[in-house]
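Below sits my pick:
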Amino acid sequence: MPGSLQPLMRIYLVGGAVRDRLLGLEVKDRDWVVVGATPNEMLDRGFKPVGRDFPVFLHPDTGEEYALARTERKSGKGYTGFQFHTSPDVTLEEDLRRRDLTINAIAEAEDGTLHDPWQGQDDLDARILRHVSPAFSEDPLRVLRVARFYARFADLGFQVADETLTLMRELSAGDELAHLTPERVWQETERALATSSPAHYFALLRKAGALDRLFPLLEGLDTDRLAQRLSDVTDSKERPAQALALLLYQATESLTPEQACSAIGDFCSQQRVPNRMRDLALKLRTGADGLSRFDQLDGCARIQLLKQLDLIRRPAHLSTLLQMASRIHAIPARREAALQRLLMQLSEVDTRTLIEQGFSGKALGEALARQQAEICAQYKE
């Protein structure tokens, strides 16, 4: 642990771990900053280098990240356009000054002493998201980061400081956002979708003038309505995928199903969205209406919908799709059990019997479809 290092080296816990502990939240990841050390000294003590742009090391026992204190200077466009400087002379205050928000610029020494040169504790108490320094406006990624923190902490009453929102608007009005890679935009967006209030992320991006520049498909998004639809998404593991599916459903609600699927496909391709999340969004967009009117469909339309949603092969997905569709349409609670029974009946259809009856090839497929449609026609709730 840090105690094995030379006295001249000082180790501080920084960032989210300190912030979340002060807020009474669970601390999941811990990051450390090392003041007064060189890369060679870190290597001599068994730390493993992992940083490409600046010296970051993994602790040989805990695997936690230890970064050498550093300063940075803007040298180009985008969030990668910086030159970093590390040396034993860089102070803790200088390192904290380059961070985005005051609540993320608090450090804790090994003895528990807090170092808070930018009054982050005051902003925690006041529930304010405030930038540390004017250097905030040099990094366009911070527009998304502030929006993400707003989404995460909105339930605790946090608001964005007026002067910080002004800098976000200035960044959005320039050309810096255009230099963000889709991967980094998606990384921040996916983390925002995992929060309890994803709609706040998009609402703040709009307020900052960044929403339509980053996500043209979301221009005109009703974030209040989105918040209502997302209010009871409780599955933390699947929350990002479900939140994205509901977001894209709402964003394409005025389009035809074909136009909507094309727009969703383009959005997911541009933003580097994982295929499984894209597929869930497409299934919700194409299936929500049919699931809500399932009792009104005829047998052929019912089997077509179930096949389209791949529910005959994957009946376990039914519950998730129904729950999501019920946030869009009024669906009776009894429908899930009835559909589960139907899927069970369909799974019991034996193609071997049809083969024994002499069906093969195309005729076998048609006979199977007729039998499935007949079963679906008898569906009752």
